[in-house]
Amino acid sequence: MDEQSQFVAVRRRRSCAEAGQLVAEYEASGLTRVELCRTRGLSLATLARYRKRRAQSSPPPENRCVAVEVSAGRPSLDSPASSGLAVALPDGRRIEIGRGFDAPTLARLLAALERL
Questions:
Q1: Angle at Cα 94 formed by Cα 86 and Cα 65, nearest 5°?
Q2: Which one, 12, 27, 82, 114, has the greatest CB density within 10 A?
C-alpha cells in the first residue's frame, strides 16, 4: 500500500443542537438504537453519550401522567383503618402515607426515589 491509498475518515463534530435532534429523532422514531445508528451512520456509544447529555441538561418533567386504578379491596380513605393515601407499584411494593403527613418528609422521600 502506498501513502496515498491510506486514509482515515475524519467525522465532523456535531453541534449540541444536532446531537439533540438525533436524540429526539431516536425517541420519536420507534426504531431500536441499533437501527437508528445504522441508518444515520452513528455509533451506539455516541448515541448513548448524546442521550446522557440531554437527560442531564433537560429539567425533569413536572407533571407526568400515570395510570391509576381504584381498588375496591382496600378500606376507603375515610375509614379508621385507612392510611390516607397508598401507592401500590407493579412489583408489589407499596407506599402508604398517613393522615396529617409531613409534606417535607414526603418531598424528600420522592426525591430519593427519583434518584433510583
A1: 65
A2: 82
Length of the chain: 116
Question: Does residue 37 sit in the same domain as residue 73?
Answer: no
Q: How far apart are CA 40 and CA 37, in angstroms?
A: 5
Looking at residue 5, what is its pLDDT?
57
Contact 83, 96 (CB under 8 A): yes
pLDDT, one tens digit per residue, over 38-88 is 998 889 999 999 999 888 876 665 656 666 666 656 555 456 556 577 777
Structural domain includes residue 76: yes
Q: Verify that 112 and 74 share a domain, yes or no.
A: yes
Query: Closest by alpha carbon to 23, among 62, 60, 55, 1?
Result: 55
Residue 23 in contact with residue 47, Cβ under 8 Å? yes
- What global pTM score does this model have? 0.43
